[in-house]
């Protein structure tokens, strides 16, 4: 009986062990079957080896931590679009932090400034006084991506104005008077340079150059203007034509700047003040009309008068005391949604020099902008006026002593007050002081000065100067 019980227990243990073995064997078979059945599924690890973020910092250069860096993943360049201020020094190592794609295995750094190559931990300080190269390598040891990082720093004083001679020798021969007018639109916009030779009986010369060029000039013929009589400094482009006035009060017109004809049925024009360009402002009475502003003589008195684009004339008020008739600088501009014309300095009807600024919206009524009791600038003639950097810009002319000045005056309030510019916006030492220059600002914020004379009796300086405030060039 005891023997039978032992045999029963032994058989039961065997069966239980076999069941466990069979269970384990079944699991292994199932796992093996799953693995063998995965031949159709392919898994590929990412090959992304990009730099995802980049920043620099240094306690000695607190502004560095605020610099935003652009990562150009196509070209591999890392740079700051907004350059750091002029004079910033990166003469010590700075902390550089980057975030790499998770599959990057190593990052190798080559510092041009110190000429070494290291395997980098993405946080150690680096020398960025010169560009730094980063080479990221993937887990496969073969796939790489290279970046070149640099810190842009302004190399010039942003608010200073850089000047230089742009062109010389136009006109080639000596001339006594010169005026440059811009005419045309778009690709057809051109400079028209009128010149009066030393011998006035020779008539007038004309040179033309595209505004987009200014270096290459073509000489053109001029017909129809009476030799020696035109007030060259007052030639004006208005609407689709040129206008010129003579010392005898006659008004001439030209559609192309070359062939001129005398206008009939016009008043005696004593001064051609400039053009009021059409404004886009609409009022109760409709769109502000353009106008050619003049001073005319009527019934023995001088009055303001305007001519519209239909060549219809409208009389204005009596001429203000001290209003300039010659030697003034003028500027067509917009203010408070209205087109306006500014005239500055010059000689009045009694041939006296003035130092005031005047403005009009229609050419018929003028208002003095400057304070009669103040002295905004010296009495002078031949000033050059333009709008630049959101201010009125005036290059001085020739004063009562017959001496030219290269001082620059700025007005930040639309011509009411004028102050001599600081040491940053000035003419360079090699610039000869002059008056009666023509002035123009192009779409790239370059200012051009054409010609000018050192004295009233000297010949015109056959130079074209070009200048620009440095920071205005950063956007182009």
Biggest sheet character = 6 strands, mixed
Strand content: 35-45%
- As residue ranges, the low-confidence spans are 1-40
Oligomer: single chain
Description of the molecule:
The chain is mostly beta strands and 476 residues long. It has a domain at 51-149. 8% of the residues lie in helices and 40% in strands. It is built from 2 helices and 37 strands. It has helices at 2-36, 470-473, and strands spanning 51-57, 70-72, 77-79, 94-100, 104-111, 116-119, 125-126, 132-138, 144-149, 161-168, 175-183, 190-197, 205-210, 218-220, 236-238, 241-245, 251-254, 261-262, 268-276, 282-283, 286-287, 291-298, 301-307, 313-318, 329-335, 338-347, 353-360, 367-368, 380-381, 384-388, 391-395, 398-399, 408-411, 419-420, 438-441, 447-450, 463-469. The strands form 10 sheets. It has a 6-stranded mixed beta sheet, with no helix packed on it. The chain has a 4-stranded antiparallel beta sheet with strand order 10-37-36-35. Strand 27 (353-360) and strand 28 (367-368) form a beta hairpin. The longest helix has 35 residues, at 2-36. The termini are far apart.
Notable features of this structure?
single chain; 476 residues; mainly beta; six-stranded mixed sheet; four-stranded antiparallel sheet; 37 strands; 8% helix; 40% strand; elongated; disordered N terminus
């Amino acid at each position: 009986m005891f023997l039978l019980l032992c045999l029963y227990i032994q058989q039961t243990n065997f069966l239980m062990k076999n069941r466990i073995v069979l269970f384990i064997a079944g699991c292994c078979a199932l796992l093996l079957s799953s693995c063998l059945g995965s031949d159709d599924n392919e898994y590929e690890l990412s090959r992304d080896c990009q730099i995802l973020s980049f920043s620099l910092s240094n306690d000695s250069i607190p502004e560095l931590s605020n610099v935003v860096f652009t990562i150009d993943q196509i070209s591999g360049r890392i740079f700051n679009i907004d350059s750091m201020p002029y004079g910033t020094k990166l003469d010590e190592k700075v902390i550089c932090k980057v975030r790499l794609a998770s599959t990057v295995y190593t990052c190798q750094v080559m510092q041009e400034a110190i000429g070494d190559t290291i395997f980098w931990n993405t946080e150690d300080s680096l020398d960025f006084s010169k560009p730094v190269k980063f080479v990221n390598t993937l887990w496969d040891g073969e796939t790489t991506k290279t970046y070149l990082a640099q810190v842009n720093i302004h190399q010039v004083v942003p608010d200073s104005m850089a000047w230089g001679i742009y062109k010389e020798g136009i006109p080639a021969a000596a001339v006594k008077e010169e005026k440059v007018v811009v005419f045309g639109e778009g690709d057809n916009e051109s400079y028209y340079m009128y010149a009066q030779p030393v011998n006035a009986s020779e008539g007038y010369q004309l040179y033309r150059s595209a505004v987009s060029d200014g270096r290459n000039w073509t000489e053109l013929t001029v017909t129809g203007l009476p030799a020696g009589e035109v007030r060259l400094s007052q030639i004006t482009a208005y609407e689709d034509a040129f206008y010129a006035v003579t010392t005898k009060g006659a008004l001439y017109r030209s559609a192309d700047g070359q062939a001129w004809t005398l206008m009939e049925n016009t008043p005696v024009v004593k001064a051609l003040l400039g053009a009021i360009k059409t404004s886009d402002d609409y009022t109760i009475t409709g769109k502000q009309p353009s106008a050619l502003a003049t001073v005319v003589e009527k019934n023995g008195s001088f009055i303001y008068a305007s001519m519209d684009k239909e060549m219809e004339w409208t009389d204005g008020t009596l001429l203000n005391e001290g209003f300039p008739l010659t030697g003034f600088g003028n500027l067509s501009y917009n203010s408070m949604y209205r087109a306006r014309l500014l005239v500055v300095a010059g000689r009045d009807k009694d041939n006296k020099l003035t130092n005031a600024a005047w403005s009009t919206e229609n050419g018929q009524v003028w208002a003095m902008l400057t304070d009669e009791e103040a002295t905004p600038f010296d009495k002078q003639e031949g000033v050059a006026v333009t709008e630049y950097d959101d201010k009125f810009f005036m290059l001085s002319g020739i004063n009562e002593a017959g001496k030219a000045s290269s001082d620059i005056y700025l007005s930040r309030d639309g011509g009411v007050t004028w102050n001599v510019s600081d040491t940053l916006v000035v003419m360079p030492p090699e610039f000869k002081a002059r008056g009666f220059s023509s002035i123009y600002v192009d779409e790239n914020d370059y200012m051009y000065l054409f010609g000018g004379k050192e004295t009233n009796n000297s010949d015109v300086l056959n130079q074209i100067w070009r200048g620009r405030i440095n920071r205005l060039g950063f956007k182009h």
